[in-house]
Structures are given as C-alpha cells and as structure tokens.
Amino acid sequence: MSSFIMPSSKKFLLIIAGPTSSGKTSLSIKLAQLLNGVVINADSAQVYRELRILTNRPSPLEESQVSHRLFGVLSAAKRGSVVWWRNKAVSEIDAALNAGQMPILCGGSGMYINTLIRGIARVPSIRDTVIEEAAHHYQKIGCERFKNELLALDPILGSKLKSGDSQRLQRAWAVAVSTGKPLSYWQAQPPIELRKDLIFCRVLLFPPRDVLFKSVKIRYQKMIEKGAIDEVKGLIKLGINNSLPAMRIIGVPQLINYIEAKTKLPAAIESSVTATQQYIKRQRTWFTNKFQYEIKSEKEFSASKCEQICEKIVYWLFTQ
Asked: DSSP letters of 79-114?
C-alpha cells in the first residue's frame, strides 16, 4: 500500500489495542508508515527503560522506522502510574496533531486506554512517600486489617474492593491519607476529559486464545536467548524496592528466583508463561466487556492479515 495524506480538517486518534502477542506493534508501525504517524505507547510495562526485552518493547530497528513515544522513558526506580501516563500521552497526541501527524496509540493496558478515552478523576498528585507508606503498611498488617482501615477512610470503595486487590486498596488508602478526602469523592467529580474534536478509530486485535498462548511460549524462549536474564540482573544491581511496579512485571520475579538459585530456569520460564497466559485471559475479558471498537480482527496475525487490516482502517478514515 502507498502512503496517504489525511484531510487536515479532521483530527483522528488511532487506537490499536488487544491482548499480549496479538500483533499490535507490527500493525502500528505499518500504519505509521502509511499515514505519517507517531506510535504512542499504551502499555504500562513498556514505559520502563531497563526492560526492553522482557516487556517485548519495539526493537531499536523497529523504533528507527517510525517515530515512537513513551517507550522506555521511565527509570525502573520510578513509580509509573495511569495518571502520569495519561498526562504524557495527551501531550504526545497534541504534539503529533500539531505537527500534522497521525497519533497512533498502541498497547494492551485496558486501564490506560480507558482513562484516556473516558477521562480521569481529578485526584491531586500523591507523594511517593505516601504511596510507599501504603505499601509498607499493607505488608505489615495484612490485607484484611488493611481493608478494614480503608473501610473507615473510604466506606464506598472499601466495600467494593476485594481484600486481595492490593494495588487498588493501597491507592485508595494513600489518596485518603494524603488528600483528606476519600478516592470515591474524587471519582464522583467531573473527570478530566480528552479534547472534544478527536475522532476515534479503535482497532481491536483479538486472535484466538490458543494462538496467543502458543505465541507466548515461543516469545519467552526468544526473550531468554536475547538476554532477558542479564536484563533482570541489571535491574537487581540497581537495588530497586520490590514494591515498585517494574519489579512486579511478569518475568521479573520469576527470573529473580532463578538468578538467586531458588528455582531452575525451565521452571522460571514456565511460571512466566503461565502468568502471562492468565494475564491474557484477563485482557480478553476486559476487551470483550469494556472496549468499544470500530474495527475488529479475530484471525491470527500475519503479514497478509496486517495488509487487510490496514486497508480497512484507511477506508474507514477516508469515509468519515
């Protein structure tokens, strides 16, 4: 396919979404080449600089082919969040549109995509020290007692969240302690919304589950061959707190166990594969129930399928 110039009077945002291993990166790069686009990361793990291999970030060669944004921009020693990402993504979308380029959001983190499209609560920024205090307090007193404390601080959210939902429990506790108002209060306020002139073209890549499961097994073996173990060793050398998001990325705890001789490599790989497959199940459920799309592909991704999807997207854009 030849490259296209979109009508300047219309502002499109392409969103390429789907579970892990569904072909999002390849499709996004192809579209960026066709549409003078910029690929903007919407994967919560791929923001971390030190974990290119284990998060399956675009390779240096892929990144050289088209403009990429928000990939590998945050130190693993920092705490990434949906609020931080959304602010950055909005800036990158505006910058692409102002430069006459097509912003192409690419990722499988449903919460990130959802907050960008639907808006986000106007919660004041929370200091890292309070977030760390929440994590430490949760570990110290246990999930049940922690949830009981949250029920006193935020009865609405405290009654909705499950005891094992540690991240959301800690977030709600930190907001209540830091702001003096429960997170449920902030969530009830009018959200911060995306610019009104955007036209969404949401594309869902949704290959069969067994295809994705098989792909994940192959992918992890390739990750090991490419140097994933050394990547995690480098992470260990940084002395990063285990409560930070980068340390919980699938594959990191498993390979740390192998490096520390707590398990064999095949077991570490199998554990990573299983965890990823479980994550894919959750992604598929989320995209099935909560993601509205204009275009959907349910076939196994391939070069020929990529061309077909691109043709559908270009036709859709030019008929709006």
From this structure: ---HHHHHHHHHHHHHHHHHTT-EEEEEE--HHHHH
Residues of the chain with pLDDT > 70, as a percent, come to 98
Q: Please count the CA atoms within 13 angstroms of the CA of 307 that sit on its side-chain side.
A: 4
Q: Is 21 annotated as a binding residue?
A: yes
Averaged pLDDT, 249-273:
98
Query: Is 23 flagged in the annotation as binding?
Result: yes
**Bridge pairing between strands 198-205 and 11-17:** parallel
Q: Is 158 annotated as a binding residue?
A: no
Question: Are 269 and 298 in contact, with CB atoms under 8 Å apart?
Answer: no
Residues 115 and 210 in one domain: yes
pTM of the complete model? 0.89
Same domain membership, residue 47 and residue 175: no
Burial 257-291 (b: 16+ CB within 10 A, else e): ebbeeebeeeebbebbbeebbeebeebbebbeeeb
- Could you tell me if 22 and 101 lie in one domain? yes
Residue 199 resides in a domain: yes
The annotation status of 19 as a binding-site residue, yes or no, is yes
For the segment 209-236, what is each residue's pLDDT rounded down to a tens digit?
999 999 999 999 999 999 999 999 999 9
The annotation status of 18 as a binding-site residue, yes or no, is yes
55 annotated as a binding-site residue: no
Tell me how many domains the chain contains: 2
Structure-token match 């398990």, residue found: 263
Q: Is 198 helix (H, G, I), strand (E, B) or coil?
A: strand
Tell me the CATH number at 291: 3.40.50.300
Whether the predicted pLDDT of 2 surpasses 60: no
Residue 67 and residue 103 in one domain = yes
- Evaluate if residue 10 carries a pLDDT over 90: no
Residue 297 is part of which domain span? Answer: 11-120+192-318
- CATH number for the domain that contains residue 144: 1.10.20.140
